[in-house]
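It is worth pausing here to work through a concrete case rather than discussing structure prediction in the abstract. The textbook approach is simple: state the sequence, then state the predicted structure, then interpret. We follow exactly that order.
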Amino acid sequence: MRLPCLRALLFPVFVLLGEPLPLLLPTASADTFEWTNATGGKFGLASNWSNPAPLVFGPPGVGDNAEFNLADSYDVTFTQNEASDELFVTDGFVRFLSDSTSSHVY
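Step two, the predicted structure:
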């Protein structure tokens, strides 16, 4: 038995809606990671972050948001260059440090 090709299955959807197929596919959205370590720690350590999305683990990366919302004073250390789309400090006092004499880029 021969199975229909993918194009044959998707063609009726294209014709019915009159729109290109890529517009029907879901788009990726940014995940927001929240800092969880009230005593501070390394930015790049996954266990310092939480994310409500299932099977999405920290640290945040390109396309994600990093939120520091603990009502404490703590240090966050960068051990390498890090990136996320946005970084928010919404509560507490956060000091960002480098682990070496050289600068790291965020």
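Step three, interpretation. The CA atoms of residues 69 and 90 lie 5 Å apart. Confidence is low (pLDDT under 50) at residues 5-16, 21-27.
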